[in-house]
Amino acid sequence: CKAASTASGDDSLTGEADLDKAAAYWVGVNQDFGENEGGHMLYSIAEKAGARFGQDSIEAEVNTNILSLMNQIKTDIIETDSCKQADGYLQYRWIVNKIIAQMT
Asked: What's the rounded Cα separation, in Å, for the pair 55 and 48?
């Protein structure tokens, strides 16, 4: 949750642009859903690891969890304007910590 400049020059407290960037850095380019041979970012690495450890039924569990948590940020925080509340960042941070836990 932070102010971000929008195309119209207004400040936005939604954090949506930051969430989009985080998702783009996780998934990367040339990545197809559940594909463990293509892609160049963390999603692809998780798919390859999932395949090696038998945790890759269509999409690696960690990728499903991380993308689900990112969607939770969108639906529970961004779409409800929680970032505009004084303690709105706490819920955002709590979900981000759950995402980080998936990476370890």
From this structure: 10
Residue 90 CA to residue 99 CA, distance in Å, equals 14
Instruction: Identify the residue whose tokens are 């690696």.
Output: 60
Q: CB of 63 within 8 A of CB of 43?
A: yes
The whole-angstrom separation of Cα 43 and Cα 63 is 6
CA 102/CA 104 separation, integer angstroms: 6
Helix, strand, coil share of the chain (percent; to 5) = 55, 10, 35
* pLDDT tens digits, 56-97: 778 888 989 999 999 999 999 888 888 788 887 898 899 999
* pTM of structure: 0.79
| Distances, alpha carbon 24 to alpha carbons 8, 28, 43, 63, in Å | 23, 5, 10, 13
Contact call for residues 76 and 6 (beta carbons, < 8 A): no
